[in-house]
Amino acid sequence: MRAIGLHMLAAAIEKKELNRATLWDDMKQLWEDYRRELDAARDRFDFLVPVELLVPSDAHNERSVQQFEMSVVDICAARNN
Prior knowledge:
Number of helices: 5
Strand content: under 5%
Shape: elongated
Number of domains: 2
Radius of gyration: 18 Å
Number of strands: 0
Structural class: mainly alpha
Helix content: 55-70%
């Protein structure tokens, strides 16, 4: 998500300022600071971002929900490695 945000900010700010955004919080601050410019450049962006939705197989079954929650923990740990 940070990469997408930086890509969009590149249309609104100078590269020198953009290069200072090395952390997520930096990018969020720039986003807030240049919100008007980003809104004005909105039509320049025509791309889709795939998302993955993880849901339990049976939201009404307590065991299924518990297994799902443990799986999400494992998936997040694997992605962070």
